[in-house]
Design goal:
The chain is of the alpha/beta class. The protein has helices at residues 5-21, 33-42, 45-105, 161-173, 189-200, 216-227, 241-251, 263-272, 284-288, 296-311, and strands at 114-124, 130-141, 145-153, 207-211, 236-240, 340-348, 354-362. It is found in: Cytoplasm; Nucleus.
């Protein structure tokens, strides 16, 4: 029975009948209903009022209980998410400690390779995902500086009408890349995945890619969507560049009494982005439009330059222009590719246009 005013009257009516009879008269509440209905129809609004109020109180208590249970579920979910994030943060710190600490113990810190990644997107979609627009990864070591570069423009395919305006505004205010369906670059995620995995050697051993802390979750979500079935959960990680930078600052401290900056100071060093106007380090699309700060490739190179400028001198590593720091700006170039092999790969897109990717390697 629905727990309205009549329900509470039936319960009371049964109790009164059985109290007078001094025994149980009904096995089920439904058996009382025919008798109670006759009595209920003869009652006026004043007589019914106590049961109406009782039903109203029950309904309010039920709503409060429902809200409380919903709140408990929300708090529980938030706590689970917080714990998951805390565990993930600890895991990333542990991976960085093993990466840097292991290289230190082998006296190979200068030769240890690190991967910096930047993925630009077309903004946040209606379903709270991000559609990639440009991907860049730089392979870097303290001793050699920038060793290899992978750069891709990406066409994520059809974009919904509700996302089109926000994508257009985001592109206009940042990287200025054409939005889908006119986006440039590769459209086949399987092909992009193979290029990323080959470049990072993630199929051979677990690999950590570093990006700025505020974009770790965004980059990770887009990268996992691209890689999808090509890797498992323990193959490739995305972690905080700030955490790596801080750990490298600690590791490259030659004098035990010398000053080590705090995590906040390390973050400020990256945020200052003193190489943001360097020419010659962006992709062709952004270089020609002088959008140096909004190029994924330029971003990765600038991170490499910042790490080099702050860590290499402590290890007595000579800074090589174009590898550790920008080239002489008077030459109009910020990255030395004289001893690198540049391969331009043209691939057809699903919509019939052509995209390109660039990979630069030492050879």
């Amino acid at each position: 029975m629905r727990k309205d005013a009549f329900f509470f009257f039936v319960v009371d009516y049964k109790r009164r009948l059985e109290t007078r009879a001094k025994k149980r008269l009904f096995r089920k509440l439904d058996e009382v209903v025919p008798l109670a209905r006759e009595a209920w129809l003869e009652m006026n609004s004043g007589q019914r009022r106590p049961f109406v109020l009782q039903a109203k109180e029950y309904q309010e208590d039920g709503e409060c209980l429902s809200k409380y249970q919903s709140l408990v579920r929300d708090v529980s979910m938030l706590e689970e998410a917080r714990c998951a994030q805390a565990n993930k943060t600890r895991q990333m710190k542990s991976l960085i400690d093993k990466l840097v600490g292991g290289a230190e113990s082998r006296h190979e810190l200068g030769n240890q390779d690190f991967y910096f990644i930047s993925i630009l997107h077309f903004g946040r979609t209606f379903i709270h995902t991000y559609q990639p627009a440009e991907l860049a990864i730089v392979k870097y070591s303290l001793k050699c500086g920038i060793k290899e570069q992978l750069h891709l423009l990406i066409n994520p395919g059809v974009i919904s009408l509700c996302d089109e305006y926000s994508a257009m505004q985001h592109s206009k205010n940042t990287h200025a890349l054409p939005i889908p369906p006119d986006a440039l670059g590769l459209a086949y995620y399987d092909e992009i995945a193979e290029m990323v995995l080959e470049f990072t050697k993630a199929k051979e051993h677990p690999t950590v890619l570093f990006t700025n802390a505020q974009n770790v979750s965004i980059v990770e979500s887009m990268l996992l969507e691209i890689l999808e079935d090509h890797i498992d959960a323990n193959t490739l990680y995305v972690s905080s560049l700030e955490e790596l930078f801080y750990r490298l600052k600690q590791a490259t401290k030659m004098n035990p009494l010398s000053f080590v900056p705090s995590m906040k100071m390390v973050q400020n060093m990256l945020n200052e982005d003193i190489f943001s106007n360097t020419i010659g380090i962006s992709c062709q699309y952004h270089e020609s439009r002088q959008l140096f700060m909004h190029c994924a490739l330029s971003q990765c190179v600038r991170w490499a330059y910042t790490v080099s400028a702050n860590c290499c001198s402590q290890m007595c590593i000579e800074l090589i222009p174009g590898k550790h720091i920008p080239m002489d700006t008077s030459s109009g170039s910020g990255s030395d590719t004289s001893d690198m092999h540049i391969t331009v790969v043209h691939k057809p897109k699903k919509i019939g246009k052509r995209g390109c990717s660039r990979r630069i390697t030492n050879e």
